[in-house]
């Protein structure tokens, strides 16, 4: 018998010596046992490469149940009206019982694919940016490395993927049609830093969102889940009917995104998004380079507790290296987005009206401020009877420079009206099109404000402001 077992025996004998027997104690114990719910075995299995399945947990559970009954029995053996037993002083011979030491924390590079990860601090530069993070254990099992390459870091907590985390690069998000087409491959059309564009385009439910920091860099945090309304998502499974994580009957499914444009092949399968469960996304700003995405997905009953207790500490521990492309020499970049304000002034000259009362117009506007240059104006207008109001269209070709972008040309077109002397623009937001040189591929919207308008015969002198909100491909 060990010293620990001797100490337990001594303690129990001291309790028994002080106890005043109750005449109905044994009957009470039997009654309590009869009132217990039926015991159902619960199997919890920890597998490694060299272990076989066992059923030790039912034995441990049964032992715990016996221990609980013993404690209850001791309590019943003490009569309610008897004197309270004094506290048992610690035995000088009782050894201090310390918890068994756990595995020593590791520090270093993330282990090979297929390896279980001991708790520790690890670094990986698989995504082009060095990422250092503290890993504990998943709530169901130790983490196992599934991927650690250009596709990013992927971890699962066991072979069923009940807990999944990934850290990698996002090159694009799926539009409505792309997300629902089973044959979609390669890159997508929504810019990588525009996660909200993907959420809005696909009717994704935004459970929680905010602007945060990860590793000292700005990040967008989005907790999302699928809209499971019939018809809101696809009726196929991204990995087929036999996929463990999305078998038939466990839709909805969508394509979500593609990896870095520097690494994704034209026939690559997109990143899927499935089941009615919460997905936590952190989209970390990498400056001009494609953002880093951190993704957490549970298949657990208590999703909120998992995000708080397992995932958030990992995210909080992350340290990041300097921004860089997904692969050395990569050219993929996020679009350049900016808003530019400028002032303008110019003239508009009316031509001769045709037989239908439509009058051609032409003119020139000069710009100062964030846009510097000139815009040539062509268009037409007509009188609206009976009050003499005016409506028309105008096309502008701007030639010049935009601060922070460069030089080139672009076009805008608008529809306008002048009712009771007041100008307004109708229809959809005015769009920027046909960019050349440094403006090639530029898209955006235009807001025009006319501040003054003075007519002198066929010539009208006007002043105003223009605000353009632009998106420009930013290539490395």
Report on the structure:
By secondary structure, the chain is α+β, with helices and mostly antiparallel strands. It folds into three domains: about 20-75, no CATH class; about 110-320, 3-Layer(aba) Sandwich (Protein Transport Mog1p, Chain A), CATH 3.40.1000.10; about 335-470, SO1590-like (AOC barrel-like, Beta Barrel), CATH 2.40.350.10. Helix content is about 15%, strand content about 40%. The protein contains six helices and 24 strands. It has helices at about 5-20, 25-35, 55-75, 175-180, 195-200, 305-315, and strands at about 105-110, 115, 120-125, 130-135, 145-150, 150-155, 165-170, 170-175, 205-215, 215-225, 255-260, 270-275, 280-285, 290-300, 320, 335-350, 360-370, 370-385, 390-400, 405-420, 420-425, 430-435, 445-455, 460-470. The strands form four sheets. The protein has an eight-stranded antiparallel beta sheet with strand order 2-5-6-7-14-13-10-9, with helices on one face. It has an eight-stranded antiparallel beta barrel with strand order 16-17-18-19-20-22-23-24. A four-stranded mixed beta sheet has the order 1-3-4-15. A hairpin with a 7-residue loop joins β16 and β17 (about 360-370). The longest helix is centred in the first third of the chain and has 21 residues, at about 55-75. The protein is elongated. Residues about 30-105 and about 240-245 have low confidence and may be disordered.
